[in-house]
Specification:
The protein is 36% helix and 21% strand. It has ten helices and eight strands. Helix 1 packs across helix 5.
Length: 229
């Protein structure tokens, strides 16, 4: 392991905005499940998640823009999440936090209706069929989101991958979910979606390569939510 990674892992322990529970702590109900707004943010504002947040560009950017909302970036890679957590700590962003854990533990970390919105920014598309379940818009994950999202809560997806974009549209249609907006070329579109407001490190790389950025905004089927809850 490189010296920079070791340094970041050590610094992570000092960042007030970063939570790194041991796996045993999230295999059951995590201590902050249902209590993030009250015990972590000390308010009653809506909570927005960024899944697979990487360096946390969206979590930090959105937190600076929307002071009346709380934002939590989630990633399992300590060396990457360090960047966003360090920025939030240095800039004293009281409405931004980071959680280092695996996404399959979401329902152990958040309670029913605790989350108002989800951002999924440039996830691994897991193109091999045997890894479909690991796609963050698969039926498996959408069912997980149903357990934590408030009714009508928005899900945003940004991706450079055409297959994953089309796959997600199909999953939305098959699940009878509510497609609100979609485009296969976000920055060529005249829309005024907030998805244009911030760019991740990887997004900037894709744009330099003249790769179209795809964007989908949708909410989950209300009937499915009721069944889940």
């Amino acid at each position: 392991m490189g010296k920079d990674k070791l340094k970041r892992f050590k610094e992570n322990k000092t960042l007030s905005s970063l939570f790194e529970p041991a796996i045993e702590e999230v295999q059951g109900d995590y201590i902050f499940k249902g209590k993030w707004a009250k015990d972590v943010f000390k308010n009653s504002n809506p909570i927005v998640l960024e899944l697979g947040c990487g360096r946390g560009e969206y979590t930090v950017g959105l937190a600076k823009k929307y002071l009346h909302k709380n934002f939590i970036g989630i990633d399992n890679k300590g060396a990457r999440i360090w960047r966003g957590a360090k920025t939030a700590h240095e800039d004293s962003l009281l409405n931004a936090a980071f959680l280092r854990t695996r996404l399959e533990f979401l329902n152990n970390c958040f309670d029913n209706d605790e989350i108002s919105e989800i951002w999924i920014t440039f996830p691994d598309p897991h193109l091999k069929l045997k890894k479909e379940r690991r796609r963050l818009t698969s039926a498996f994950f959408l069912e997980m989101y149903q357990g934590i999202l408030q009714p009508g809560g928005l899900i945003h997806l940004k991706t450079d991958n055409t297959y994953f974009y089309n796959y997600t549209l199909r999953i939305i249609i098959e699940g009878n979910h509510n497609l609100i907006f979609e485009t296969n070329d976000l920055y060529a579109d005249s829309c005024k979606e907030e998805a244009k407001d911030f760019q991740t490190f990887y997004e900037q790389m894709f744009l330099k390569e003249n790769t179209n950025i795809k964007y989908i905004k949708f909410s989950l089927n209300a009937a499915s939510e009721q069944i889940q809850k």
